[in-house]
Each structure stands twice: as C-alpha cells, then as structure tokens.
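User: Sequence recovery, please. Input:
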C-alpha cells in the first residue's frame, strides 16, 4: 500500500524486522565483543566502543538505509536526500521546535535522573562499555577518535530511523507514528541498561514526535547531536 507520495507503508512487521536485528547487534557488540577486545588488547573500553560502534553498529545502519532505498528504486541524489529522506532546508520553525524539544528533554530527563537517585541512590548512568574517567593530559587524542564515531552515530541513526523508516511508518500509523517509532528506537538502546534507557525516554519520544511534526530529518540531527555531543564533551572535561 502506498500513499500519494508513492511511499509504501512500513507496518509493525517491517519496522520490527529492522529494529530487532539492530537491537541484537547492539547487544552482542556491547555485551560480548567489546569486553573480549578490552581483555585481549588492554585498551580503554570507551576507545573500543568508539571503534566497534562506529564500524560495527552505525555503519551497518547506513548500509541498511542504502539497501532499503535501493529496493525502493531510489538513486542517491540531492532530490532523494531532500524529498525522500526529508533532509530539507531548515526553517525558523524547525529551529524553534528543536530548541523547545531540547529544553523539554533536559527538564524531563533531569527529573527522571533525580527520581531514580531518590529511589535507588547514586548510580553510574553510563553502561560499563561507555564508562571512562575525564580526559587528562596524554588522553585528549581520544577526541580525535570520538569525532568520526559521533558523526557515524548521529547520521547512521538519523538516516535510517528518521530518513528512511519514519516517512513510511507514517503511511501505516498516521498521527500515532511517533509512539511506535519511539518504542522501536528505545528497543535499539536496550543494551544500554534500564537506568540510562529511562533517562533517554524523553529524547526518544519527544524527538520522534517533533521530527514527525516538522517532517524535517535535520531536526532529528540537531536534537540528537545537540544532546549527545555537548554531553560527551562535558563528561570529558569533568563538568558533569
């Protein structure tokens, strides 16, 4: 079934045929491969996360997106990028939605973190494979490894989830798409552990809603990258 734009619907079966393997890949890479590599190389876990996630998780998401586009008969052109994937020119409204979304995410995620601390006490919000000490002299080079990882992370997820899948899910689920989309995105992060996953819930659902509302995939890049990047930098320098 296709809508007037020619997009075929992506229902529950098609959506979770992508979400579930991606979640399993994330789980296996973080639960088994990274600890194994840490043991045999003696390198910092965070370094191996950058390498394994960048090449073994987010690059496959990009490849999957390209394969789906190819199956649709799309060529990788500016027209595909702008119309099919909805990476459109950013408007003032898009920026305002992005800023408002980030503010709401900050408020609700902060409340969830404080609530968890009240219930279970202080805890490390980061999963073991992401834990690291603030950067010190002689370790700043990790930022050079982080940068390409960060680009692959943000663009890999936004390209597949928001660019490729979301428009087709809208054909199937209409105004409720952001709920199903958000649930699938949360499933992808299940390997992060329940504490971090709970704090990500506001981003997952608020961003999904706003990208569906604006129909501009750049909004997802702004929100996802705008939270992910500065947060990592702040941790690197011991600010949070």
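Assistant: Recovered sequence (240 residues):
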């Amino acid at each position: 079934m296709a809508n007037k734009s020619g997009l075929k619907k992506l229902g529950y079966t098609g959506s979770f045929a992508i979400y579930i393997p991606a979640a399993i890949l994330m789980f296996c890479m973080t639960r088994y491969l990274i600890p194994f590599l840490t043991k045999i190389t003696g390198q910092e876990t965070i370094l191996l996360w950058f390498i394994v996630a960048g090449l073994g998780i987010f690059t496959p998401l990009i490849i999957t997106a390209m394969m789906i586009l190819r199956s649709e008969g799309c060529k990788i052109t500016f027209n595909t990028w702008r119309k099919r994937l909805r990476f459109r020119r950013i408007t003032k409204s898009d920026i305002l939605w992005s800023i408002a979304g980030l503010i709401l995410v900050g408020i609700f995620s902060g409340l969830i973190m404080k609530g968890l601390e009240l219930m279970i006490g202080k805890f490390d919000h980061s999963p073991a494979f992401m834990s690291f000490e603030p950067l010190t002299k002689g370790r700043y080079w990790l930022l050079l490894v982080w940068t390409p990882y960060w680009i692959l992370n943000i663009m890999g997820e936004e390209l597949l989830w928001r660019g490729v899948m979301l428009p087709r899910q809208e054909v199937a689920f209409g105004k409720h798409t952001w709920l199903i989309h958000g649930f699938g995105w949360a499933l992808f992060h299940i390997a992060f552990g329940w504490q971090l996953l709970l704090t990500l819930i506001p981003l997952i659902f608020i961003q999904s809603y706003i990208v569906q509302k604006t129909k501009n995939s750049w909004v997802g890049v702004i929100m996802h990258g705008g939270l992910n990047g500065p947060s990592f930098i702040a941790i690197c320098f011991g600010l949070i």
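Residues 34 and 48 are 6 Å apart (CA to CA).
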